[in-house]
Amino acid sequence: MKTPNLKSIESVTELPSEAKSELKSTVKWSFWTVFSSTFITIFLAEMGDKTQLVTLLMSAESQSPWVVFLGAAIALISTSLLGVMVGYWLSKKLSPKTLDLTVAILLLFIAGWLISDVIS
């Protein structure tokens, strides 16, 4: 059976709203949509990050920029792989709403901890 696209789901009027929302959740993202949104998000998040500053300093001190690049690239790939694997495993165990709420609470806790560290 072919998965309907969002336009065809919206145009179906005889389905109840619960069925329409269930159909929307089964629609798959294309490879390029997932790839480009991931690339842009991570690229922008890492700009000016402490990791970038450390690699800049290490490259300047070591006089071996390609070795520093290779080490930093493998480290970033490893941490990204770990994040993807844990995220995929969690998506099989928890609902998206529970996962969103858990991450939101965790980020609020970390923000509060950092703010209290700055204040004190």
Shape: extended
Rg, nearest Å: 21 Å
User: Could you estimate the helical fraction of the residues in percent?
Assistant: over 70%
Number of alpha- plus pi-helical segments: 6
* Total strand segments: 0
Uncertain spans: none
What are its keywords?
single chain; 120 residues; mainly alpha; extended
Brief write-up:
The chain has a domain at 1-47. It contains six helices and no strands.
Describe, in plain words, how this protein is organized in 3D.
The protein is an all-alpha fold and 120 residues long. The chain is 82% helix and 0% strand. The radius of gyration is 21 Å and the shape is extended. 0% of the residues are buried. The model has no long low-confidence stretch (mean pLDDT 83).
Ordered list of secondary-structure elements with their pairings:
Blueprint: H1 6-11, H2 17-26, H3 31-46, H4 50-62, H5 65-93, H6 96-119
Helix pairs in contact: 4-5
